[in-house]
C-alpha cells in the first residue's frame, strides 16, 4: 500500500492505464560511419510507425470529435513529411554521426525554440505540434512501450505523472474509474474537477512507489484515505468491495436530504450553492439541492478547443445556465487563466512564478478585447435569468476601476445596439489575494458582494504553492493567519453592508461550519459533490454554540490546534468522513 494525498473522495478498483510522460533520458550517442545506412533505416521505421499510430488515433477520435476537430492529426502527419524538418534530422546524422534519436531530439529543440521566439500565435502552436510529434517519434526510436490511447474494452484508472485541466476535459467519465498522479495539489484545478465529476483521486505518490505502476496493474484507490494498492491480495480486494458498498449507501442516504430546508438545528438558514465549470454539472447541482451557482469557472469554456470562444457562443452557454437555474442565481466569474490553467492556443509566457505572474484579471485587463467580448456575452445573458459578475484576483482599486470601466463600455455598446441586459447587474470581486483583504474596507463600498476564494488566499497568505505536493503539508486553510484574513474581510464587508460568500474548497469542508456560523457568513459555494455532505452536517449544527467555538479557535496558536478544536465539534452523523 502506498500513502498519498486523498484529493477526491470515493473508492475505485480497476486496471491502470498509464499516460506516457514523454520524458526521455538517453545519452548523446554517436554512431560509426558504417552504421549510417542502418541508422537511417531505423529513422524511417520510426517515422512509419509514428504515422501509423497517428492515422489510427485519428480514426479513433473521428467518431467522438467529428471530422473538424481531427485536423490536428493531419498537421502532425504533415510534420513527419516536412522536408525542412527531415533534412535537419538527416543533416545532424550525416554530418555529426549522431544516433537517430539524438538527431531527432536536437532538431525538435531547434524548431521549437525558433517558433517559440516568434511573436506569432500560430507559430507558437506549431512549436507545440512539433514537440508532440517529435516525442512520438522518439518513443518509437527508443522502443518505449507506452500506450497512448486508453483501452476501449474495459474501464480503467488513469495513472500519470501530472495531469492538466485540459486533459480532464477529455476524460471519459464512463470509463475513467479513478485518478492517480505522482504530482499535484489538493486544490489544483484537476483535483477540483475530479471532485466535481465524482471521480476518486489520489495524488502525491512521487518518490513513494518502489516500482512504477505499469499498464494493466490492478489498482485500488481510496480517495478518502489517500491510499493506493498496487496488485493487492484477494483479502484486500474483498475488504474494499465491502467498503465501497458502505460508501455508496452513505451517498444514497445523503441524497434523501436534497429537498430538506438548509438550516441549523436552531433555525439559521444557509445558501449552499454549487461551483461549476460547465453546463454538464448543472443537473447534478440541482439534484443535490443547490441554491444556485455561486461560482461558474468560465475558463473551462475556453479549453478543449483551438481558438477563443466568440461572444455568441459564450452568450448561448451563459443564457442556458441562467435559464436552467430558473430564477436561482449564477455568479459568472470572468476568465481566470494562468497559474495551473493554460490554453493551448493562447501562448502564455514561460514564467518562473506563474501564480504570481500573468493570470486572471491581469490578463483580461491587458487584453480588454477578449474581456469585453466576455462581458458583452454575460450582460446579454443577464436578460434571461439572475446573473452576477465576479472578477478574479483583484488586488487593487485600480484593477477594479479598470474592469468596471470595460464593463461600462460593454453596457454602452449594448445600449447603442438596443440589446437588452440587466442594467443594474451585481458585480463582485474574489477576495483571494492578501492585498484585497487588507484593503477590503476600501474595496467594499465599490462592489455588490465579496466572494472569498480560499484556495488562492491560503496559497498567497502562507506562501505555499497550491500545486506543489512537496509543500502540501504546509497548505493549511485553518492556519491562524488565514482565519484572521477571513475575520478582517467579514468585518470590512459588514461595515459597508456588503454580502460575503465563500467559494474556495474550504466552503465544502464540514470542519469550517462553526467558523461561518460565528462570522455571519450564510452563503457557501462548493463542489457539487460536497453540497449534501455539508448540508448533513449543518442540519446537526447549533448556531448558539458557534461563538464559543470561534473564541476558542481564535485563541489557538496553530492550524493543528484549530483543527483539534473543530474536530471536537464535528457533526457528521450518517457519515464517517
Ligand atoms: C479560489 O481561489 O479559492 C477559487 C475559488 O478560485 P480557483 O480555485 O478557480 O482559483
Ligand atoms: Mg482562485
Automatic annotation (TrEMBL):
<keyword id="KW-0762">Sugar transport</keyword>
<feature type="domain" description="PEP-utilising enzyme mobile">
    <location>
        <begin position="154"/>
        <end position="226"/>
    </location>
</feature>
<keyword id="KW-0418">Kinase</keyword>
<keyword id="KW-0670">Pyruvate</keyword>
<dbReference type="InterPro" id="IPR006318">
    <property type="entry name" value="PTS_EI-like"/>
</dbReference>
<feature type="domain" description="PEP-utilising enzyme C-terminal">
    <location>
        <begin position="253"/>
        <end position="542"/>
    </location>
</feature>
<feature type="binding site">
    <location>
        <position position="456"/>
    </location>
    <ligand>
        <name>Mg(2+)</name>
    </ligand>
</feature>
<dbReference type="InterPro" id="IPR040442">
    <property type="entry name" value="Pyrv_kinase-like_dom_sf"/>
</dbReference>
<dbReference type="InterPro" id="IPR050499">
    <property type="entry name" value="PEP-utilizing_PTS_enzyme"/>
</dbReference>
<dbReference type="GO" id="GO:0046872">
    <property type="term" value="F:metal ion binding"/>
</dbReference>
<dbReference type="GO" id="GO:0008965">
    <property type="term" value="F:phosphoenolpyruvate-protein phosphotransferase activity"/>
</dbReference>
<keyword id="KW-0808">Transferase</keyword>
<feature type="domain" description="Phosphotransferase system enzyme I N-terminal">
    <location>
        <begin position="3"/>
        <end position="126"/>
    </location>
</feature>
<keyword id="KW-0598">Phosphotransferase system</keyword>
<feature type="binding site">
    <location>
        <begin position="455"/>
        <end position="456"/>
    </location>
    <ligand>
        <name>phosphoenolpyruvate</name>
    </ligand>
</feature>
<keyword id="KW-0963">Cytoplasm</keyword>
<keyword id="KW-0813">Transport</keyword>
<protein>
    <recommendedName>
        <fullName>Phosphoenolpyruvate-protein phosphotransferase</fullName>
        <ecNumber>2.7.3.9</ecNumber>
    </recommendedName>
</protein>
<dbReference type="Pfam" id="PF00391">
    <property type="entry name" value="PEP-utilizers"/>
</dbReference>
<comment type="function">
    <text>General (non sugar-specific) component of the phosphoenolpyruvate-dependent sugar phosphotransferase system (sugar PTS). This major carbohydrate active-transport system catalyzes the phosphorylation of incoming sugar substrates concomitantly with their translocation across the cell membrane. Enzyme I transfers the phosphoryl group from phosphoenolpyruvate (PEP) to the phosphoryl carrier protein (HPr).</text>
</comment>
<comment type="similarity">
    <text>Belongs to the PEP-utilizing enzyme family.</text>
</comment>
<dbReference type="InterPro" id="IPR023151">
    <property type="entry name" value="PEP_util_CS"/>
</dbReference>
<dbReference type="InterPro" id="IPR036637">
    <property type="entry name" value="Phosphohistidine_dom_sf"/>
</dbReference>
<dbReference type="GO" id="GO:0005737">
    <property type="term" value="C:cytoplasm"/>
</dbReference>
<feature type="binding site">
    <location>
        <position position="333"/>
    </location>
    <ligand>
        <name>phosphoenolpyruvate</name>
    </ligand>
</feature>
<feature type="binding site">
    <location>
        <position position="466"/>
    </location>
    <ligand>
        <name>phosphoenolpyruvate</name>
    </ligand>
</feature>
<dbReference type="InterPro" id="IPR008279">
    <property type="entry name" value="PEP-util_enz_mobile_dom"/>
</dbReference>
<dbReference type="Pfam" id="PF02896">
    <property type="entry name" value="PEP-utilizers_C"/>
</dbReference>
<keyword id="KW-0460">Magnesium</keyword>
<feature type="active site" description="Proton donor">
    <location>
        <position position="503"/>
    </location>
</feature>
<dbReference type="GO" id="GO:0016301">
    <property type="term" value="F:kinase activity"/>
</dbReference>
<feature type="binding site">
    <location>
        <position position="297"/>
    </location>
    <ligand>
        <name>phosphoenolpyruvate</name>
    </ligand>
</feature>
<keyword id="KW-0479">Metal-binding</keyword>
<dbReference type="InterPro" id="IPR008731">
    <property type="entry name" value="PTS_EIN"/>
</dbReference>
<feature type="binding site">
    <location>
        <position position="432"/>
    </location>
    <ligand>
        <name>Mg(2+)</name>
    </ligand>
</feature>
<feature type="active site" description="Tele-phosphohistidine intermediate">
    <location>
        <position position="189"/>
    </location>
</feature>
<dbReference type="GO" id="GO:0009401">
    <property type="term" value="P:phosphoenolpyruvate-dependent sugar phosphotransferase system"/>
</dbReference>
<dbReference type="InterPro" id="IPR036618">
    <property type="entry name" value="PtsI_HPr-bd_sf"/>
</dbReference>
<dbReference type="InterPro" id="IPR024692">
    <property type="entry name" value="PTS_EI"/>
</dbReference>
<dbReference type="InterPro" id="IPR000121">
    <property type="entry name" value="PEP_util_C"/>
</dbReference>
<dbReference type="InterPro" id="IPR015813">
    <property type="entry name" value="Pyrv/PenolPyrv_kinase-like_dom"/>
</dbReference>
<dbReference type="Pfam" id="PF05524">
    <property type="entry name" value="PEP-utilisers_N"/>
</dbReference>
Amino acid at each position: 500500500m502506498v500513502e498519498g494525498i486523498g484529493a477526491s473522495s470515493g473508492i475505485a478498483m480497476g486496471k491502470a492505464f498509464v499516460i506516457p510522460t514523454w520524458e526521455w533520458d538517453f545519452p548523446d550517442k554517436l554512431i560509426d560511419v558504417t552504421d549510417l545506412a542502418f541508422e537511417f533505416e531505423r529513422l524511417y521505421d520510426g517515422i512509419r510507425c509514428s504515422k501509423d499510430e497517428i492515422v489510427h488515433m485519428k480514426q479513433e477520435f473521428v467518431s467522438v470529435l467529428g471530422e473538424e476537430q481531427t485536423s490536428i492529426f493531419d498537421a502532425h502527419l504533415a510534420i513527419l513529411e516536412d522536408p525542412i524538418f527531415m533534412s535537419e534530422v538527416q543533416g545532424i546524422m550525416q554530418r555529426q554521426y549522431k544516433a537517430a534519436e539524438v538527431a531527432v531530439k536536437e532538431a525538435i529543440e531547434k524548431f521549437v525554440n525558433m517558433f517559440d521566439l516568434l511573436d506569432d500565435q500560430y507559430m507558437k502552436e506549431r512549436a507545440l505540434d512539433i514537440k508532440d510529434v517529435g516525442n512520438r517519434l522518439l518513443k518509437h526510436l527508443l522502443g518505449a512501450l507506452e500506450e497512448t490511447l486508453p483501452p476501449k474494452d474495459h474501464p480503467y484508472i488513469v495513472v500519470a505523472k501530472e495531469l492538466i485541466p485540459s486533459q480532464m476535459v477529455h476524460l471519459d467519465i464512463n470509463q475513467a474509474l479513478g485518478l492517480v498522479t505522482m504530482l499535484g495539489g489538493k486544490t489544483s484545478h484537476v483535483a477540483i474537477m475530479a471532485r466535481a465529476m465524482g471521480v476518486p483521486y489520489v495524488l502525491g505518490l512521487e518518490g513513494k512507489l518502489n516500482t512504477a505502476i505499469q499498464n494493466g496493474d490492478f489498482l485500488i484507490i481510496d480517495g478518502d484515505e489517500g491510499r493506493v494498492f498496487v496488485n493487492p491480495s484477494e483479502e484486500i480486494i474483498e475488504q474494499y468491495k465491502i467498503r465501497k458498498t458502505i460508501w455508496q449507501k452513505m451517498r444514497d442516504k445523503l441524497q434523501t436530504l436534497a429537498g430538506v430546508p438548509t438550516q441549523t438545528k436552531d433555525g439559521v438558514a444557509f445558501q449552499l450553492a454549487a461551483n461549476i465549470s460547465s453546463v454538464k454539472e448543472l443537473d447534478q447541482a440541482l439534484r443535490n439541492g443547490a441554491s444556485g451557482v455561486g461560482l461558474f469557472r468560465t475558463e473551462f469554456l475556453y479549453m478543449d478547443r483551438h481558438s477563443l470562444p466568440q461572444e455568441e457562443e459564450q452568450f448561448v452557454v451563459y443564457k442556458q445556465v441562467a435559464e436552467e437555474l430558473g430564477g436561482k442565481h449564477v455568479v459568472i466569474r470572468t476568465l481566470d487563466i494562468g497559474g495551473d490553467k493554460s490554453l493551448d492556443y493562447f501562448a502564455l509566457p514561460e514564467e518562473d512564478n506563474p501564480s504570481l505572474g500573468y493570470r486572471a484579471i491581469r490578463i483580461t485587463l491587458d487584453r480588454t478585447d477578449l474581456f469585453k467580448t466576455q462581458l458583452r456575452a454575460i450582460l446579454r445573458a443577464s436578460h434571461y435569468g439572475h446573473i452576477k459578475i465576479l472578477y478574479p484576483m483583484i488586488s487593487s482599486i485600480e484593477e477594479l476601476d479598470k474592469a468596471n470601466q470595460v464593463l461600462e463600455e460593454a453596457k454602452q455598446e449594448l445600449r447603442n445596439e438596443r440589446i437588452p441586459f440587466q442594467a443594474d447587474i451585481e458585480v463582485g470581486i474574489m477576495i483571494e489575494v492578501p492585498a484585497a483583504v487588507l484593503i477590503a474596507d476600501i474595496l467594499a463600498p465599490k462592489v455588490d458582494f465579496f466572494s472569498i476564494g480560499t484556495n488562492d488566499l491560503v496559497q498567497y497568505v502562507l506562501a505555499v504553492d497550491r500545486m506543489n505536493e512537496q509543500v502540501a503539508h504546509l497548505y493549511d486553510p485553518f492556519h491562524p493567519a488565514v482565519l484572521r484574513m477571513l475575520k478582517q474581510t467579514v468585518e470590512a464587508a459588514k461595515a459597508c453592508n456588503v454580502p460575503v460568500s465563500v467559494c474556495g474548497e474550504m466552503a465544502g469542508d464540514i470542519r469550517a461550519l462553526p467558523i461561518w456560523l460565528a462570522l455571519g457568513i450564510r452563503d457557501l459555494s462548493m463542489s457539487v459533490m460536497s453540497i449534501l455532505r455539508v448540508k448533513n452536517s449543518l442540519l446537526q449544527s447549533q448556531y448558539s454554540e458557534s461563538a464559543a467555538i470561534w473564541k476558542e479557535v481564535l485563541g489557538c496558536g496553530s492550524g493543528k490546534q484549530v483543527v483539534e478544536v473543530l474536530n471536537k465539534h464535528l457533526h457528521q452523523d450518517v457519515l464517517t468522513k
